[in-house]
Design goal:
Layout (H helix, E strand, L loop, with lengths): L26 H13 L28
Amino acid sequence: MEVLLITSHESGPWTIPKGWPITQLAPHQVAEREAWEEAGVRGKAKKRQRRARSLGCSGPSPGSPRN
């Protein structure tokens, strides 16, 4: 996974380009548009792949109570 980080014009904190959903565009297309509008970066974002099931990690999840 790659993540685009940007800063403000005056060396503000690092952030991720973000915006509101656009009904005519898929989420990955909105991400491409926001990267262009906020950072002047053109690229192709991939569709998010959904996992059908867990990878089978053993042990408790982070933050879960212990018995």
